[in-house]
Fold these 2 entries.
Entry 1:
Amino acid sequence: MTTLFDSDRFIPFTAEQIANLKKSYLAGESTRSLARRYGISPCTVRSRLKLMGVALRGQGRSLRVTPQVMATASAMRAQGQPWKIIQQKTGVKAESIRCAMRRARK
């Protein structure tokens, strides 16, 4: 039996559960969903996946940067609007939009 820790709680995990955690994440299941299933925090799920050498996906918020948000943000930036206003208008964090725009340029 292997262990995972969540805050001060000791959580025993079998080798099979750890393998399933990794397999489920790689199949596309979210850290939040896995955390609910195993009764641990999403942060613990992410840290255990990192320890297993799994490359983590983005943390959800960037998924809100839709093509429509990108188009709105691009148009507003072209008009000289500050990031704070763009964030308020789109409801998406300015840093998430900036990162998505940088990725799109590559």
Note: The first strand starts at residue 2 and ends at 6.
Entry 2:
Amino acid sequence: MENDPKAFVMWLQGFFELSNPSTLDEKQVQIIKEHLALVLQQTNTRQNTTNKQTNKQTNKTQQTHNSTDGHQNSTNTQTNKQTNKQTNK
């Protein structure tokens, strides 16, 4: 079975609906626990990858924004100096 959380949950729900077990034997419990561990591990890995990608995109956006701000501040400083020179004449 694919280690997809949604697919596993759907499978588990179907298992309980179709077989309507009153108890689970040790082997069944162990299989479910092992599969849950795999699904959760993969989910955490996907989440970490997504978080890293989001952080990289945020950092790039901030760097671009900071770079633009620096240029704008430099332009404002030059404009202010020119205005001051004209005012002082």
Note: The chain is about 90% helix and 0% strand.
